[in-house]
Design goal:
51% strand; 30% helix; 4-stranded antiparallel sheet; alpha+beta
Length: 96
């Protein structure tokens, strides 16, 4: 089992219902592809270090997960690049 940490920044202009459904949808991508999510930590709205897609604030979410292969992480990477609500994301493989 490989352990990963994914941090992503959502558009801060999303209303609460849209934000919750976006987070659930992103988590569903991971679980549908065999990953087991151990923790979802929502940091909330924060000031960005620099402007991203004309935004100066973003809603930060950090997800910790385990997966047998990289299929779930690859699919998350692909779909989060397409999702207009996701400003940025970063995937880190953690040491076991």
């Amino acid at each position: 089992m490989r352990k990963y940490e994914i941090m992503y920044i959502l558009n801060s202009n999303l209303d609460e219902a849209t934000r919750k459904s976006t987070i659930e949808g992103l988590n569903k991508i991971l679980t549908d592809n065999g990953a087991k999510i151990s923790d979802v930590n929502e940091w909330g709205n924060r000031e960005l270090a620099y402007e991203i897609k004309k935004q100066t604030r973003g809603y930060y979410v950090v997800t910790t997960l385990t997966s047998d292969d990289s299929k779930a992480v690859s699919e998350f990477d692909r779909l989060s690049k397409i999702n207009t609500s996701v400003l940025r994301h970063m995937i880190v493989k953690l040491d076991n």
